[in-house]
Amino acid sequence: MTALLAATNLSKRFRGLLAVDGVSFEVAAGEIFAVIGPNGAGKTTLFAMIAGALAADGGTVTLSGARIDGLTADTVCRRGIGRTFQNVRPFAGLSVEDNVTIGALLRRPDMRSARMHARTVLEALDLADRRAVPASSLTLPDRKRLEVARALATDPKLLLLDEVMAGLRPTEADRMVSILRQLNRDNGITILLIEHVMRAVMALASRVLVLHHGATIAQGAPEVVVRDPAVIASYLGAEAVG
Amino acid sequence: MNDLWRSLDGRGRTVLTCVLAILIALPLVADRYVLSVLTLIFYFAYVGQAWNLMMGYAGQLSLGHALYVGLGGYVSALLWLKLGIGPWLGVFAAVAVAAAFGATIGWLGFRFGIAGVYFALLTIAFAEFTRIGFDHLELTGGAAGLFLPFEEKRVGEWWNLRGGQLLFYYLALALASGAVLLVALIARSRLGYRWLAVREDETAARALGIDAFAVKMAAVVISSAMTAVGGVFYAFYYNNLFPSQVFEISRSIELILAPIIGGLGTVFGPVIGAFVLTPLGEILIAATSRLGVNAPGVKAVFYGITLIAIICLMPSGVWPRIAEVFGLKGRVP
Amino acid sequence: MMWLIYLNVTIQGVLTGLVYGLMALGLSVIFGVVRVVNFAHGEFAVVAMYATYVLFTAFRLDPLLALVPLAALFFFVGYALQAALINPFVGRPEHEQFILLVGVGIIIVNVLLIGFGPDARPVNLSYGFDSYEIGPLLVDKPRVLAAAAAIAVAAALFWFFRRTRTGAAIRACADNLVGAAVIGLNVKRLYALTFGLGLACVGAAGALLVTIADPSPVLGPAYTLLAFVIVIIGGMGSMAGALVGGVLIGVSEALAGFLFAPSMKSMFSFALLIAVLVLRPQGLLGQRS
Q1: What does the pLDDT look like over B69-109, one tens digit per residue?
Q2: CB A214 within 8 A of CB A238
């Protein structure tokens, strides 16, 4: 198993509060890896450090063996990591297609090929019929898919998804799950996702990391992790597990 | 460029061609006064476009753009007066100096995370500092100003921009048309789209691999360079430069009115804005004197009222509203 | 003996700076809470200066006394202006607010021009040339009184914001707009109130400014810039910062004007502004957001 992403001993302190405490894990190429845990566990902080939006106080992150910690967010993207934001950030004044085209500009040499690639991605994300519409007029589920499409257009090796299921109704969440599964299967895209919606986690992830108070309390296959007593006590609760 | 032409529909092409044809042929019938007003309109359309690139597309608010006009004017005027170097060469130096100032301001602002109103105040500070500095600069004549002398023998030397209204009319028209073309090209280019991304949401843009710093610097440098060319025109058209006039904040404000009123972030906005505002001033003078009201300041009061009215009723600008009315769908060019 | 002259100049700068600080305090309140780029701030101050001139010329009303009715009048003007014209622009892009207030400023300047003409109108106080002797120093009486009045008005405003419920409510709006609305504060009314208070400061400052300069229409834009410079250097959101910034600018302008040339005095202020923006954007007393 070749590790595409390796985080070693990552930590981050915010003025006395240890938000992330020595977290280590590896994500293999082509795998779907989930990070779960209660609110405030440090999941988004962890993500931000991997994506280059936040500087780590300790530890390292490597992508395909090369160090990426300390690089700026745009450099990290160029190295091959695409990310979405928990609070979706569409380019509201632009059309859906323009949003994704901008993502495609990273690896396409000119506007025309970027636009064509954008259209392909929009097809995969079920947004092709709304491509001329201003992003501001999209519903939340559509915005979430736009967010994924835009990140995907940068042709990433690794996709970081931050709570893409939040706010979606079960049918919409299922739709997103099947899209992600298809992307992973067909394009071999590695996915690292933060999620609260357990049914999505169980359906997608091959391995799970559980964070609590910034530290790892469990790591492994989903079926094993959800039965871990520490995980049940701190996060899931006995009823959540079937 | 063919792409551009093809992107317009039949109606758009006809309108554009007709307007250009009229403007080119106008000197055959129009009197000097009308030509001078039009020259002013073209000038404001030009510098407005330069500012439009930086604000309307890249989203960086500069309220000190008069700095670049002044620098462009002074550098080219000095080269002409002291070294006999004509403006067609001098413009390169003018652009270089202005771009250097722009790059400095941009670097300070973007490297240190100064944004929004604060960035605007940074630009004002530079402009004001330079204004007062030039007031005390011996080399440029200080507060007493710099003058380009009228030389009878030189009239007709178009390569030294020594000529009458006609020369400057066509020059200004060329500049304005060139600016519109440039903005249209950049707007559909990779850089243009990156600007839009940074303007809309810089954090999201970075997450897509856009080097926001580089992109913003490009905006400042291009905008300041372009504006400096306007400064060269200004110097050789008016033949005098005073720091308290060229660098003044009211000049900075004056040159941003047309793009905002016309329509920020659109290709034709600054042009429409210039066509609305510049004659408005003239009309107001004529109207108020016809009514017998002759107090200086009355015209300006109506001007201020117009500004408030437009920003309240049509905040996106006159051009987008016109485009709506004429049923132009999709993104307003 | 030189140090005595420097001391005199510095003290003059401090006194002037306190009045500038009061004007800037108004902007700090407006910009800090309502977050509107009030680019007509200085123009309003000039209106107050002219009003003081009129009251003085017509009724022999001392500027220090005039500041009370003027502050009250400007409060209502500010309240009405915010509620009627400016409120829709809160939260809109800065360049739109800017154009709105530039338009207001243009109207103000030119109405004054039409009404009073372009020449400066001096306010000749009976005690205009009196001075206090403090040891070897000679300080202008009107400036001392004006500075004292500025401090008094600022203190009243501090008291209002720290000790009253409405003041606390306004500060809540500044800190957390959504939260404030959620707990039921009438944000629109509080904004209007704040704008009123900000302009009241300007009204009072304008009355005091006549001891420093003679009112003329062209002063408006210069005072607007001055207010912004002071607020940024002193620190956005800090009322004490506005006064401290005012004093700093007052002193630096006085010294620069004395050491170099009066026409160069603003250069240092702008250089300082650039330095603050780059190195310490929260200003001297502001908090890092």
Answers
A1: 999 999 999 999 999 899 999 999 999 999 999 999 999 99
A2: no
CB contact under 8 A, B121 and C266: no
pLDDT-based confidence at A239, cuts 50/70/90?
low
Centre a 10 Å sphere on the Cβ of residue B324 and count the other Cβ atoms it contains: 13
Instruction: Quote the CA–CA distance of B78 and B81 in Å, as a whole number.
Output: 5
- For residue B162, the model assigns a pLDDT of 83
Residues 283-312 of B with CB under 8 A from C: 295-298, 300-301, 303-308, 311-312
- Is residue B59 within 8 A of residue B195, CB to CB? The reply is yes
Chain A: closest CA distance from residue B198 (Å): 9
CATH of residue A7's domain is 3.40.50.300
Residues B180-195: what's their mean pLDDT? 94
Asked if the Cβ–Cβ distance from B193 to A89 is below 8 Å, we say no
Residue A14 lies in a domain: yes
3-state SS assignment for residue C112: helix
Q: Is the pLDDT of residue B154 over 80?
A: no
Q: Does some domain include residue A230? A: yes
Residue A63 domain boundaries: 1-28+37-79+207-242
Number of B/C CB contacts below 8 angstroms equals 120
B333 pLDDT band, cuts 50/70/90, is low
Q: How far is C201 from C28, CA to CA, in rounded Å?
A: 10
**What are the CA-CA distances from residue C196 to residues A60, B90, B134, C31, C138 (Å)?**
54, 52, 39, 12, 37
Query: How many Cβ contacts (< 8 angstroms) between chains A and B?
Result: 75
Span B200-227, average pLDDT: 96
What pLDDT shows up at residue C84? 92
Among C105, C82, C209, which residue's Cα sits nearest to residue C150? Answer: C209
Residues in chain C within 8 Å Cβ distance of B242: none
Please give the ipTM for the structure prediction.
0.92
CB-nearest partner of A89 from B196, B201, B330 = B201
Chain B residues close to C88, C-beta within 8 Å: 312
pLDDT at C180 over 70: yes
Does residue A218 lie within any of the structural domains? yes
Contact: A89, B203; criterion CB under 8 Å: yes
A40 closest CA partner among A214, A196, A164: A214
Q: Where are the alpha helices (DSSP H) in C117-140?
A: none
Please say whether the beta carbons of A30 and A7 come within 8 A.
no
Q: Which of residues 58-97 of B touch C (CB under 8 A)?
A: 61, 63
Number of domains in chain A: 1
With an 8 Å Cβ cutoff, is B196 touching chain A? yes
Under the banding of pLDDT at 50, 70 and 90, the label for residue C287 is low
Contact A53 B203 (CB under 8 A): yes
Do the domain assignments include residue A107? no
Question: How far away is chain A from the Cα of B246, in angstroms, using its nearest Cα?
Answer: 35
The model's confidence at residue C288, banded by pLDDT at 50, 70 and 90, is low
